[in-house]
Amino acid sequence: MKVFAISDLHLAQSVEKPMDIFGGEWDGYFQKIEADWKSRVCDEDLVLLGGDISWGMRLDEAQADFDLISPFPGKKVVVRGNHDYWWSSLAKISARFSGFTFIQNNAVKFGKVVVAGSRGWSIPTAKSSEEDKKIYAHELLRLKMSLDAAKAKLTDGDVLIALLHFPPFEADFSDTEMTALLEEYGVNIATYGHLHGKGVRAVRKTQKNGVTYYLTSCDLIGNTLVEIL
User: Fold this and answer.
1) pTM exceeds cut of 0.85
2) Full residue range of the structural domain in which residue 186 is found
3) pLDDT digits (tens, 9 = 90+) for 109-156
4) In this structure, what CATH number is given to the domain that contains residue 103?
5) Hey, is 3 helix, strand or coil?
6) Domains in the chain: how many in total?
7) What SS3 class is residue 210?
């Protein structure tokens, strides 16, 4: 079993939100993702989707976007992004999109791979609002709950992967509460997206204190899936 990751598909089958207005990287981007996905992924493989899947505001609006990728090969695991406004309770979204596995305070195991995760949030600074600090603290708690669930599933030789949306560090890759949590639980691999555009940090792979981090924002990785394991 191989493990792939990609994020920030920003699909918009039911709403008017074309992505090509944000630059040439988005011109025909989904067709490139589809071709790459179908050429490299087998049904027994795992595909981690790191948030911002659909621009739909409600489950009904997100349905067509999930229908679009549902037939693609591989077992699909999803974490929430900051633009996934359709996201509801774990029970509702799991029932609605039955071909997908969702991470929300839980963890899942496939063979020798255990996946935990959280949306995350912007790293707090002195200029951050109290609301942003509150959300970040809440996401830390969610990640801890997910990692606790993962810990209960781990056996010798397993690989622990953290599926994130926001980067767990700033542009200088310095330590944060989130990276400390990943290290404390012995996470082997962490993926993150959220970043876009030519002016942002675009380091595809970073190793830090025993954790290997992969950038998965589709426009920054050539609209191809990243093979992480």
Assistant:
1) yes
2) 3-227
3) 999 999 999 999 999 999 999 999 999 999 999 999 999 999 999 999
4) 3.60.21.10
5) strand
6) 1
7) coil
